[in-house]
Amino acid sequence: MPTANAALVDRENLRAGVDAALARHVATLRGTARAISPDAAPLADAVERMLAGGKRLRAAFCYWSWRAHGGTPGDEREQAVLRAGAALELFQAAALFHDDVMDDSSTRRGRPTAHRVFADEHQAEGRRGEPRRFGDGVAILLGDLALVASDDEMSHALAGLPPSVARSARAVFEVMRTEVTIGQYLDLVAQTMPWGDAVDDERRARDVVRSKSARYSVEHPLVLGAALAGADDEAVAGCRAVGLPLGEAFQLRDDLLGVLGDPSTTGKPTGDDLREGKRTVLVARALARATATGDQATVDALTRGVGDPHLGPEGVATLTGLLVRTGAVAEVEQLIEELCTEAFAQIEARDWPEPARSTLVALAHAAVERTA
């Protein structure tokens, strides 16, 4: 979310409420770690660093969906919704710790990734064993700690709610976590498959977009907020109709930023997705267009370059140029526009009250028009 739109998640003290819940968790984790052993203190520091950089976008979609479905600011249920938002942020932290290990990413939000930090410390202190294995191991454990914390936070959030509301909200949260994990697996599998069939390439890319990011980033938070308000099935279906296309547009924007974004803004080196071999709709469209026009040189360059971990700045620039020249970038921009049109039409069809409606519209724009 661009800095100009950061105030969106500050409305109604949303960020302050979510951050307070996260701070309580970090303080508890720090006390537990130190009580077990002074050597465990760096774990709490690493979790705190990861939590400090989040946009709180998922928490905001959850909170304002709750408001859109009858939630009243300041009532006894508001704290539950804010804690549910904190649970979403903790799950996001868990996913990022693990994702950075799987992708061997070097930076996250402009800072070295956790596994790199711990590997570097291992090497600097001359410890025994392989630094990289140590760093990866610690990052996996950090993800596990954040995952446990997300479940604890959600349990606390639901504890005082009516049983039917708590069951509905818990079901949304459980499906979300399972789906994201399966989406991560599909992402890994897709990177092992050969390019070649345009239909299959895009199908795999869209499957990953939907399961790993689209539903998790927008649809499930909207549905969770509605569930916490006790919304009926029709209202929940309306949230899904808004959330899926908007979530897809959100991830497609992320894919474009991974190639064309400014590293000083995105916090990640340009071309990381290309080096990691991410099977994005963007690359699938470029290959499909090059194949259709008989441009074998472009096909060869893309299939050889995407997934090359040693791809340097010149190689990244070459592939980026091909993505633009094939028309793939323009096609993905057009797809984002179509998905946004669908999502905004669905918002228009909902009878959400103000200020929830206008805030959710602004959040939707921020999600797809961002530069980071």
TrEMBL record:
Pfam family, one: polyprenyl_synt
InterPro entries from the UniProt entry: Isoprenoid_synthase_dom_sf (IPR008949), Polyprenyl_synt (IPR000092), Polyprenyl_synt_CS (IPR033749)
Cofactor: Mg(2+)
SUPFAM superfamilies reported for this sequence: Terpenoid synthases
Keyword terms of this UniProt record: Magnesium, Metal-binding, Transferase
CDD domains per the UniProt record, alphabetical: Trans_IPPS_HT
Family to which the UniProt record says this protein belongs: Belongs to the FPP/GGPP synthase family.
Protein name: Geranylgeranyl pyrophosphate synthase
Species of origin: Cellulomonas phragmiteti
